[in-house]
Structures are given as structure tokens and as C-alpha cells.
Specification:
The chain has about 300 residues and is an all-beta fold. It folds into 3 domains: about 130 residues, Glucose Permease (Domain IIA); about 70 residues, SH3 type barrels, CATH 2.30.30; about 60 residues. Helix content is about 0%, strand content about 35%. The chain contains 1 helix and 20 strands. The strands form 4 sheets. Strands 1, 2, 4, 5, 6, 7, 9 and 10 form an 8-stranded antiparallel beta sheet that branches. The longest helix is centred in the middle third of the chain and has 5 residues. The two termini are about 35 Å apart. About 10% of the residues have low confidence. Bound molecules: zinc ion. The site of zinc ion has 5 residues, from loops.
Amino acid sequence: MSNNYTRHVLASKKEQLTADYKTRNPNYKTHKGMDFIDDAGKCIIVAVADGTVESCRNDVIGVDHTYNTAGNYVRIKHPNGTYTRYLHLKTGSVCVKAGQTVKAGDKLGIMGETGDSYGVHLHFDVCVNGEYVDPLPYLTGAKGFGTSDHAPTPSAPADPADLRKGDKVALSKAPLYAASTSSKKANTVTGTYYIHSDGIINGRIRITTPKGCADCTGWVNAADCKVDKPSNPAPTQTAALKVGDKVRVRNGALTYSGTRLASWVYDAVFDVQQVGTSADKDYIVIGLNGQVTAGMRAADLSKV
Ligand SMILES: [Zn+2]
């Protein structure tokens, strides 16, 4: 089962709701968040948006309905002052520290059942000015966290393979989501720009002027970009990888779906767990110790 979220709290993006926020279900009148299990069975919890880890806990063992009700958790402060929490994480799985900055999609830990929990699940909540508000609009993209990913309704993304870092793109009246450092005030950009980072993040790409990073222009819908001149060929070669091969991730590479990866990923050696799907031969699943880490493109992996 799929959901219509544009932001995610699970690496698999297959959040399956098990208990809703209080206003939507009379059975959960006191429930201040949304509970999820992972429809893909991977159970890797990720940051919903960019922010800073405000606090976390990693040493609660087992179920505790009275004292440590949150269990092991991560609390993140986002740029607009909104907080998100991820509760009941597996003991010892929390892989971030207080004060650490995180990006949307960075791994926080593994789903568990510590604290006031009945069965393995993630409790996710959103706090604004001391009130636990409905998390749903934040997951669908209707509300934001003060990060550049705030977009009301991303349109259908173009094929990610068509857009690579350095590609020259022509834009005709593309609406601008967030002008970062540019003095440009217009809501619409036209002309020729370059793609700033590989892949598509929630249906959008970051564009820049020819001067590059220091003069970033902003984010536009991938669907509004027409590739004018590709800088590097799209990764179409058939994967020469087999299940069980050891690989490293190319520096700066994003996941298959365009999500940023945590920095440690670029130092680690992974096992290839799956090669290709019926739709794409270059789709490669990598992981560690039998756990899935990410779906990647073959071109972003080098054999060790
Ligand atoms: Zn809950």
C-alpha cells in the first residue's frame, strides 16, 4: 500500500498508518501523533526534514508504560522552530547525537518497541509552540519546516536519469520554490541554468547559474526543466554487479529516488543485495549485515 506523502519518516517511504492523530479517529482521542509500521519491512527511521538534533535517548531497554514512555527517541528542531519526534526506537540503534545537524532522509535509528509501546512501531509527532499538532499536512507537504524543500504540491517528476549534476537546462517560466542566495525576487525563472545536484528531491531539482554554487538560484519542479545539453551521460550501462559484490558509493551520489545520504555512507563498504528490477536493470540495492541501506544506481557504485 502506498501513501501520498511528499516527506517521509521511513527510508522505504512505505509508511503504513496504524494509529492516527487524535482529531481523525475517535479511538485515539489522546494520541498526539501518528503511528506507523513499515510496509516494506525495513524499519529504518529517517529525518522528515533538515534540522538539528535537540535531544535523543538510546539506552531504554524494553517496554515501559509508566516512566520512560517515549522509549528511545530522537527530537529534531527545524529551521522555523517546529520540532519533530521519533519514539520507541530499538535499543542501541539511535545513530545521531544531540547538536548534530541532519538532512531530510538521514538515518536516525531503527524502529523498535521501547517505552509505552504495544508492538514494534514508530510514533511520529510534530510540535509547534508547545502544542502537538496534526503531522499529516507536514507529510503531504501542505505545511513546511522552514527548509528549502517546502513545496505545496510537487508535480510529476521527470525521469531522474534525465537530470544529472552539471546538465544545462532550459526553463520556460518555471515557478521558483525558494530563492536561496540569489538577489532575484521573481517567482518565475526563465532562461538557461545548470543543475546543481544529482537527482530529484521530492519532484524538484536545484538549479544554479553558470557561476556555480556561490550563486545558487533556487529550486524548481523537475517537470519544468528541459535538458538542453547533458554534461555527463545518463547511467544507462547494464550493471556489471552481482548480488554479494562489495561496493562503495560514489562521493556525492544520491539514492535512486533522489534522497540525500548520510555522510558515513561514502566511507563504508556495502554488500550488493539486489541487482535490477524488471523496470530498470541499473537499480541496485545495497546494505550492511543483511539490513537494507538504500536503493542506488549502478553508475553511482564502484566495485571494491
Ligand atoms: Zn503513537
